[in-house]
Amino acid sequence: MLRDGGKVTGVETVRGVIRAKKVGFAVAGNTSRLWRMAGLGKLPIETHKLQAFVSEPLKPLLDQVVGFGVGGAHFYISQSDKGGMVFGGDLDWYKSYAQRGNLPIVQDVAECATSFPPLVCPECGYCVIGLV
Q1: Distances from the Cα of 83 to the Cαs of 31, 38, 56, 60, 62, in angstroms?
Q2: Whole-number Å distance between alpha carbons of 97 and 63
Q3: Are 114 and 78 spatial neighbours (Cβ–Cβ below 8 Å)?
Q4: Dihedral of CA 56/86/32/91: which sign?
Q5: 79 CB contacts (<8 Å, ≥6 apart)?
Q6: How many CB atoms lie within 10 A of CB 26?
Q7: Would you kindly state where each structural domain of the chain is located, as residue ranges?
Q8: pLDDT in tens, 59-95
Q9: What's the confidence (pLDDT) of residue 88?
Q10: Which is nearest to 115 in space by CA: 81, 71, 79?
C-alpha cells in the first residue's frame, strides 16, 4: 500500500505502482487481515466462516430464499441461476480464517435438510430435499 499522511494513495504491485484516489479492499473474509498487513491498524469487523452446499442443477423450482430456525439451528435454501439448490445453516460461532469445513455444522445442516418438507418439482418429479 502506498500512503501519504495516513491516506492510502495507491498500491505497489510486481508490475509497478498504481495510483488511485480511492482503494477498495475486496478480499472476502481476509479483509481485516490484509488491512493489518497494510499497516492501517485494526478494522472493526470480524471474519466468520459460513458453509454452503450446492446440489447438481435442477429445473427451476424455487424463486426465493426459504429459511427457518428452531432452537438455535437455522437453515436456508434457495436455487441459483444455474439451477443448483444452495443450502446451509448457521455461522461458526467463533472468528476464523479457516477455509475448511466444520463437521458439526455439516451435521446440523443435514439434520435440518432432512426435516424440511419435501419439495417436488411437478415437471420432473424430483424430490429435491427432505424425507421421501
Answers
A1: 30, 40, 7, 6, 9
A2: 32
A3: no
A4: negative
A5: 58, 60, 61, 62, 63, 85, 86
A6: 6
A7: 2-37, 52-115
A8: 888 888 887 776 555 788 889 999 988 888 877 676 7
A9: 85
A10: 71
